[in-house]
Amino acid sequence: LNKFKGKLIGVTSKTKKLGKDDPRRIIHSVKMGLALSLISLVYYFRPIYDSFGVSTMWAVLTVVVVFEFTVGATLGKGFNRGMATFLAGALGVGAHHLASLAGEQGEPIVIGFFVFLLASAASFSRFYPEIKARYDYGVLIFILTFSLVSVSGYRVEKIVQLAHQRLSTIILGSLTCVFISIFVCPVWAGEELHNQIAVNLEKIADFLEGFGGEYFQTELSNGESALDTKDEKLFLERYKSVLNSKTAEENLANFAQWEPCHGHFRYQHPWKQYLKTGGLIRQCAYRVEALNSYIKSEIQAPPEFKKKIQDACIKMSSESAKALSELASAIRTMTQPCTANVHIANSRIAANSLKTTLKTALPMDTDLLQIISAVTVTALLVEIVSCAENIAESVHE
Amino acid sequence: LNKFKGKLIGVTSKTKKLGKDDPRRIIHSVKMGLALSLISLVYYFRPIYDSFGVSTMWAVLTVVVVFEFTVGATLGKGFNRGMATFLAGALGVGAHHLASLAGEQGEPIVIGFFVFLLASAASFSRFYPEIKARYDYGVLIFILTFSLVSVSGYRVEKIVQLAHQRLSTIILGSLTCVFISIFVCPVWAGEELHNQIAVNLEKIADFLEGFGGEYFQTELSNGESALDTKDEKLFLERYKSVLNSKTAEENLANFAQWEPCHGHFRYQHPWKQYLKTGGLIRQCAYRVEALNSYIKSEIQAPPEFKKKIQDACIKMSSESAKALSELASAIRTMTQPCTANVHIANSRIAANSLKTTLKTALPMDTDLLQIISAVTVTALLVEIVSCAENIAESVHE
To answer: Does B127 touch chain A (CB under 8 A)?
Structure first.
C-alpha cells in the first residue's frame, strides 16, 4: 500500500510539473473534451441525427483523430481527411461499378485486384518525402475509404447516399475541430516555430554568456563559485536540447504551412527561412558542444597564459552572446536587429586583438602541449563568432 | 504537354531511386496491398460476413491503420488498438448504463459530462513522455471507442453485441497484419536499430579514414586529388546524417520493445544500451563536425609545421577509424571486438607521440596564430580518440 501511495505522489507531482511547464497542455486537453462533447450532442439533436443516421459516428471519429495541439496540424489533418474521403469515395464507387459488371463470380476477384493495386501504390507514395511531410494522413484515409467503399456489398445508389452522409459528417467534425482550435486559445505552429528559434538562440547566448566565467573561473574565485555550481551547470547544459531540434522544427514548419494569416504572420510566411536559420543555430550548437568539453577538461593551460588570453576570450564570448540574444529579441519583436551588428563587430575586434596577443604572448619556453586546450578554445570561439555572423545574416533576410 | 512529360520523367526516376535505395519499400507496399485484399475477401465469405455484419468494415479499417513498416510498430499498434477498444468499450457500456438511469432529460448531460471528463484526462495523459512513447495510439483509440460506445443511442444488450463484434473484427484485422508483417519478408525494428548503429559507426570511421588524406593533401599531391574531389567530398559528408539520428533511433527502440525473439535478438534485448551507444556516437559526430570545418578553412598552418604533426595525426585518425569500423563489424556479427582495443591503444600512442613532438617541434620564431587551426585539429582528434574509447566500452557491455 505504501508503495502505491508513493507512486501516486510521484504521478501527481509529475502531472503538476507537466501542467506548469506548459499550461497550454491543460488547455488543449480541455479543448479536446469540449470538441468531443459538442459533437456528441449531435446524437441528441433529432433533426441532425435523423438525416445522418449511423454515419453520425464518423463525426465523432473525425474529431478524435483530427484534433491536434496546433492549429496548423488540425487544419492539415482536417483538409487531408476531407479531400481524401471525397477522392477515394468517388474512385471507390467507380471501382465498385466496374466490378459489378464482371458478374457475381468475378466481382470479388476484380475488387481484390483493384484494392491490391491502389493500396500498394498509395502505400509506396508515402515514402516520397514531399508526400510524407504534407499528405501522409490523407493517403492513409484514401486507402481506408477506397477499400471500405469498393468492398462494401451495397448497391450503387445506397453507396452514393452513404458516401454523401459520411462526407458531410466528416466535414462537420473537421469544422468543429478547426473552429475550436482557432477560436479557443489557439496554439499556432508558426508562432511556436518562431519562438522556438528565438529560444534556441537564447540558450546558446546563455551558454556563451556563462562560458567565459566558467572556463576562467578556476583562478578567479575558486572558493565562492563552488556554491552556485549546480545552478550554473544547469544553464550551461540548456543548449543541449538545441542539438536535436531538427525534427521538431521541421514538423512545426510543415504544420505552419497550413495556417492562415494570424498575428504578425501572413499566409505562406517564409517558413523555409526559419528552417535555414535553425540549421545555422544547430551548427553553432555543435561548436558549443565541442567547446563545452573543455570546461571539464583536466589538462588546463598554465594560469599565466590563460590570463593573457582571458580578456579577449571573455569579450569574444560575451559579445557574441549579446549579439545572439539581440538577434533573439529581434526575432521575437519582428524588428530589424539594430545593435547586433555592433556586438558582432566587437567580437571580431576581440578576436583580432587576441590574434595579436597570441603573436607576442608566447614566452620562449612555453610547453605547447599545455596550451593546446586553451588555443583550441579560442579557435572554437572564433568559429562561433562567424556562426553568429551567419545567423545574423539569415535573420536579416 | 512538354512540361507534364518532364514532370512525369522526374517522378519516374524518383520512384526508381526510392525503390533502389531500399527495396523493402516496394515489398512493404505489396504486403500492405496483400493484407488489405485478404481482409476484403472476408466480405465475400458468407459465414464470416453473416456473423459480423456491418462490423466487418472495422477489420478493413484496422488493417489500414495498424499495418506499419516494421514488425514492432505493427505489433505495438495492434496491441494498443485491441486493448484500448476492450477497456474503453467496457467503460463506455458502464457510462451508458449510468447515464440511462438519469432519465431521458438527464442522459445527454450526464453522457456529455463523462465524455468531457475522460477525453480531457486521456488527452492530457498523452503528454507524459512514457505514455507518448508506447501507448499514444492506444489512448487515441480509447477516447474514440469510449465516445462512440457511450454516445450511441442503442440499448445496452445491443451495445454489448456490437462491442463483441467490433472487438472480434479488430482482433481479426490486427492478427492479419501481424501475421503478414512477421511471415512475409519481415522488417524488424530491432534489427534496423542494430544496423543503424553499425552504419553510423562506419560513417564516422569513413570520415576519419579520409580526413588525414584530405587535410594534409594540399602538399601531398595537389594535382592528382582534384579529380576525385567530388567522390571524396561525398563520403566526407556522409557522417552528417548521424548528427540528427536521435529521433529515429528512439522510435526504433520503442518499436523494438514490442518485438518477440527473432534472429540473434531475444525478447527484451537491452535496447536501452543501443540508445546509449547511439548517444556516444553522436557525441563523436559533433566533434567530427567541428573538425570538418577545418578542412575547408582558409587559414592553413605553415607546411613545415604541418609536416611535423602529419604522421601522428594521420595515424590517430586512421587508427580510430579502424577501431570504429572494427566495433561496427563486431556489432554486426554480435561478437566481442578483439582487435579494436589494439587500434585504440595505437591511436593513444600516436596521440602521446604527437604530444612529445609538439614539445620539441615548435621553432622559436613560429607565429602561434598560424598554427592555431592545426593545433585545434590535433586537439579535436585527441577528443575523438577518447570518444572512440567510450564507444568501445559501451559496445562491450
So the answer is: yes
Beta-carbon contacts of A326 under 8 Å, excluding residues fewer than 6 positions away, are A337, A339, A340, A343
In sequence order, which residues have a C-beta less than 8 Å from that of residue A107 and are 6 or more positions away? A99, A100, B44
> For residue range B293-347, what is the model confidence (pLDDT) as tens digits?
666 655 555 666 667 767 777 777 777 777 777 777 777 777 666 666 677 677 6
Q: Are A11 and B125 in contact (CB under 8 A)?
A: no
The answer, for A133 touching chain B at a CB cutoff of 8 Å, is no
> Cα(B133)–Cα(B108) distance, rounded to whole angstroms?
35
3-state secondary structure of B265: strand
What's the count of helices (H) and strands (E) in chain A, helices before strands?
Answer: 16, 0
Give, for B389, the enclosing helix (H) or strand (E).
helix B368-396
Per-residue pLDDT tens for B36-67? 888 887 777 777 777 777 777 888 888 888 88
Window 244-263 of A, Cβ < 8 Å to B: 244, 246-247
Q: What are phi and psi of A262, to 5 degrees?
A: -155, 145
Test A148 with B372 for CB contact under 8 angstroms: no
Asked if residues A63 and A177 have their Cβ atoms less than 8 Å apart, the reply is yes
Q: A216 - beta bridge partners? A: none
Q: Which three cell numbers stand for residue A362?
A: 608566447
Phi-psi region of A65 (alpha: psi -120 to 50; beta: other; left: phi over 0): alpha
Q: Is A303 on the interface with B (CB under 8 A)?
A: no
pTM reported for the whole predicted model: 0.82
Shortest distance, CA A272 to any CA of chain B (angstroms): 18
Cα separation, B313 vs B290, whole angstroms? 16
Measured between beta carbons, the chain A residues lying within 8 angstroms of B283 are 289
Dmax over CA atoms of chain A, in Å, equals: 98
Residue A294: Cβ within 10 Å count = 18
Shortest distance between the Cα of A222 and any Cα of chain B, in A, equals 26
What is the four-CA torsion angle of B183, B189, B194, B199, rounded to 10 degrees?
100
Phi, psi of A265 (to 5 degrees): -100, 135
Q: Cα separation of B3 and A275, whole Å? A: 30
* Residue in the structure block whose three cell numbers are 583562478: A219
